[in-house]
């Protein structure tokens, strides 16, 4: 965790690891599988479980009643180095929060929920002290945002929701559109059905600026129809909204940023901020 192969960002940042399924997009949660396979080693590297997190030699931090694994102090300092690197390179860089959790989860156990609050407070502080980074917070729980986001707009906070099917499009995007953020985006990954985004892409109340799309990967991946991605691409281009096609499965193989009808789609909206604060 840190520098990442995820194509639409430069770094990933996880205040904690662990989550609970909330919708069909979670069914084959990549993070859950990764944590179970290699998560035990994170404990040996200083990540702190909020309770008994190792079961039969494996990290068990998925589910409503399981602990979460919180980041060590040195990990929380890393973004300062990323900020310096961005300033030296003369470019803004994007940080994805969180690839191994949902940053707006409210744990059922109040002691764990309190820790999540503390780590979120540290996260907001990091945003304030790393002005060359754009922080992309992606959630499947936007209904918790009013309660959990900091008061006042953070100029480098981008907010996104996952919308894997039409039901989640219509549930989550209207909430997203009401939230304060400098940029709003949608992750249509894993794509589980065709979706109609047009009501949210244009019109007076619309402020969506970016759609990221991708087919599910992994051994039990649910298949996605190419026409679903064509439709979302066309909806985005007609509304002048940036479209990023992250991955498709072609001949049973994952293809990153593949061509769709002969063209690759890797658009990213521009941050309105300069590299260095004035
Ligand atoms: S919300 Fe994200 S991290 Fe949490 S279970 Fe679902 S897919 Fe996994």
Outline the structure in words.
The protein is of the alpha/beta class and 278 residues long. 31% of the residues lie in helices and 22% in strands. It has a domain at 141-268. A hairpin with a 2-residue loop joins strand 14 (259-260) and strand 15. The model has no long low-confidence stretch (mean pLDDT 94). The structure holds iron/sulfur cluster (SF4). Iron/sulfur cluster binds at residues 19, 21-22, 25-26, 29, 31-32, 101-102, 140. Iron/sulfur cluster is lined by residues 19, 21-22, 25-26, 29, 31-32, 101-102, 140.
Write out key terms for the chains shown:
278 residues; alpha/beta; 7 helices; 15 strands; globular; binds iron/sulfur cluster
How are the SSEs placed, and which strands pair?
Blueprint: E1 11-12, E2 16-17, H1 30-44, E3 48-49, E4 54-55, E5 58-59, E6 69-70, H2 73-89, E7 93-97, H3 110-129, E8 133-139, H4 145-148, E9 157-162, H5 166-177, E10 183-188, H6 198-201, E11 208-214, H7 226-239, E12 242-250, E13 253-256, E14 259-260, E15 263-264
Parallel strand pairs: 1-7, 7-8, 8-9, 9-10, 10-11, 11-12
Antiparallel strand pairs: 2-6, 3-6, 4-5, 12-13, 14-15
The protein binds iron/sulfur cluster.
